[in-house]
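ok trying this again, last paste got cut off
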Amino acid sequence: MSRPFASSYLAGEAAARAFIPHDFRDPQVRAARTRAAAARGASPALVAVLRAQQAQLPPSAARAAHVEALAAGGVAVVATGQQVGLFLGPLYGFYKAASAVAIARALTAETGVPCVPLFWLQTEDHDFAEIASATVADRDGKPRRLALADDGARISIAHRLLGPEIAAFEAEFARYLGARHAVAVSSGTSALSIALAALGIGAGDEVIVPALTAPATANAVCRAGAIPIFADVDPVTRTLDPGAVEAAIGPRTTAIVPVHLHGIPAAMAAILDIAARRGVPVIEDCAQAHGASIDGRMLGTMGHAAAFSFYPTKNLGAAGDAGAIVTSDPAVAERARRMRSHGLDDHGVATMVGETGRMDELQAAILRVLLPHLDEANAERRALAARYCHELSDLQIGLPPWHDGAAYHQFAVLVEQRDEVQARMAERGVLTGIHYARALHQHPAFAQDGRTLPVAEHLCTRLLSLPIQPEVATGRIAQVVACLKASLGG
C-alpha cells in the first residue's frame, strides 16, 4: 500500500499543534455526521468520510466494529477532517491538514484498517492515481470506482460529473428550500455568474450589489460581462440598504443582488418592491445563508434566482468547492444547466456560450449526507449567537441584529481599534476573523471614480468575527467573552 500520510501533512500537523491549542483527538473535533461510504461492485474499497464539523462519532468499539464489518476483505479507509473555527493565513491550511491526518491516524489505530485523508483528493500537489491506488484500486491495480455513501449510495468512475448523486442532491436541495429547481455547479461564484447569464444579463448591463461582501459577488457580475454598481449597506443589518438601492438604480440597471451577509437576511420585502417597480430581477446571494428564512420562507426562494456556495467553511459545506443555482423558473434552470457544461444541449451541440461549471459527484454525495442535519446545525448557531448577545450586552460594542431566521454563518461585533483588539485576543489564545477588511469599491479591481460609501467603509475597519462554529464555540462562549472584554481594555 502507498504511504498513508504525506510528509507535507505531517509538517502541517506539527505546525498546527505548535500554533493552535486544540486536542485533535478530542471527540468533538473528530465528530462526524457522515459515517461511512462503501464501494461495492468493481472495487472492494471503503471510503469513510468523517466530518469533524458536526456531531459525536459512536464509541471507539462501536466505530471499530462498524468499519471492520464494512471493510471485510482488507478495505482501505479514507478519513477527512474539517477546519474548526476562524484560522487565518497558513494556520487555516495547517489546521485542516492536521485535522484530517489526526482523524485518519485515530481510525487506523482503533480499527486496524489503513486510513488516508480524503483531504488529499482536493489538493493539487498529490497525484490522484497514487491516492486512488491506495484506496480504490481494483484487482488489476487500476482505480475503478470511488464510492461515497450513506445507506448505500454510490459514485461510479463513469459518473464523476453530472451523475445520479448530482441529480439526487439537486432534487433534495430544491425540496428542502421549497423551490422548483436547483442546478448544481462548481462554486458559489459560478452559481452567481451563471444565474446572471441565464437571466440574460451581460455586457454593458449594470447590477447593483452591496459594498460590504466578499469580492466573489462582484467577480461573478464581472464574469457575466456586466458592471457591478455598489450600494451602501444598512448600519444595523449590514446588508443592502433599500434606500441606497433606490438611489443607485439607473437606466442600465438590469438586476439587484442582495447578499444575506453572515447569514442575516437582507431587507427582501423592500428590495423586491423596488425591483418590481423598476422591472428588474433579484438574484439572492445566499453563499452564507443556507437554511436561513424570513417568516418561515427560505432565503433563496424570494428572488428570480439565487446562488449558494458549498465551500467547506459554509453552514452546509462540501469537501471542496461546490455551489448551486436555485430558481422556480424552468427556463432559467434549463439555461443554467446548459451553461454549466459549455452550453451543450443533450446532443452535444453548443446552443449558447457556457463554461466548465459542473459539480462533481463526490461533493454532491457529501452534501446529500449533510443536508438533513442543516437545520439542527443552524439551531445550534442561533443558540450560540443568543448567548453571545446576552453575555456582550453590557459592552459598548455593536452586535449583529437578532433574527429568528438567521443562520449566523458569522457573528461579527463592531469594535474600535479592531486590529489591536484582534491581536490581543490572539495573544490570549482566541483567534478571530475579519469579514471583510475592505469594501468592494476599495479594491483596485472594482474602483469606481473615487466614490465613498460611508457605512460600508466604517464597518470594514471595525467588524470582528468571533468563533460561532458549534464544534469550537460550544462550551467556550464564556472564555471568548472574557478574552474580548480583557482585550478591549488593553
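PB: full thing came through this time. The mean pLDDT is 75.
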